[in-house]
Amino acid sequence: MKNDFLSRYIKGFAMGVAAIIPGISGGTIAFILGIYDELIEAINNITKQVKTSLTILIPVGLGVLSAIIALTIPIGLAFDYFPLPTVSLFAGFIVGGLPLLAKKADLKRNVLSWVTLLIPALIAVSLGVFSVWGELDASAILDQSALLPKISLIVIGALGVSAFIVPGISGSMLLLTLGFYEPILNSLENVIDALPNVFAAGNDLTNFVFLGVGLLVGFISISALMGYLLKHYSRTVYIAVFGFVVGSLFSVFVNYEIIDVYGDLDVLYIILSVFTLGGGTIASYRLNTQHAA
């Protein structure tokens, strides 16, 4: 039992780290580490099997929370000063998990399998590209006090959390592509600045009420959908996830946070990035063989 708790905590910690890095989703790491199916089942059965579900969700949740609290600042600094080596390290974590994903996907040589693989891959790639070039302006919805336009924030919240649940899609890049990433951050800063009198930021607080509803609806509905699909169409899901994850490798290196780095590269910097990519790949592969379910 103690080993199970530690193993799930480690996997949750890895998911939390992924949430900090642009282009990587917690769902991707959960899938690579072999805990994804277990998490989805625990979420969907929490009212039927409370003890069993909490035995899974608590250590994973503690791991995610620990990583975010402990590493947001260090990883942020690493990304500020060594962005390409940092993202290369986490890209390596994904690469090291690809053999396991490929085995689960069991890709056949037929048109349907390749279409199921390529469409998700293209979606993941396009998110990276559009996060650089296709940002929309959604400030008007968050800045105005009218309630009717804010209903759209329920959809945005649901999409944001679904990007965390669906492996291979980065929630931050999805929100930025839709034009809501920076406005939501600005709205959050306004709420923080208003503390402790949080109601002074009434409009921004309202934004997060609508977003919160969307997060809850999305979390429940997407988890239920993924649970159903894994139960009835598991091989198709594995192929699609493999496509999302392969496409996300492109988006790790081509997204709104990293793109400016490529204008000023030197040989040593590239060598360091290759080294961290290799180190991440080896570490991930070994972690898979030791801890993957």
Q: What is the 3D form?
A: globular
Distance between the termini: 14 Å
Regions with little confidence, pLDDT below 50 for 5+ residues: none
The value of Rg in angstroms is: 19 Å
Helicity, as a percent range: over 70%
Q: Biggest sheet, open or closed, and with what strands and sense?
A: none
Strand content: under 5%
Structural class based on helices, strands and sheet pairing:
mainly alpha
The tally of domains stands at 1
N-to-C order of helices and strands? HHHHHHHHHHHHHH
Average pLDDT taken over every residue: 82
**Number of extended strands:** 0
Helix count, DSSP H or I runs of 4 or more residues: 14
Task: Give the topology.
Layout: H1 2-20, H2 26-32, H3 36-44, H4 50-81, H5 83-105, H6 111-133, H7 139-143, H8 147-150, H9 152-165, H10 171-177, H11 181-194, H12 202-232, H13 234-253, H14 267-291
Helix pairs in contact: 1-2, 1-4, 2-5, 3-4, 3-12, 4-5, 5-13, 5-14, 6-10, 6-13, 9-10, 9-12, 11-12, 12-13
Summarize, please.
With about 290 residues, the protein is mainly α.
Explain how this protein is built.
- The protein has one domain.
- The model has no long low-confidence stretch (mean pLDDT 82).
- By secondary structure, the protein is mainly alpha-helical.
- Helix 9 runs antiparallel to helix 10 and helix 9 (152-165) crosses helix 12.
- It has 14 helices and no strands.
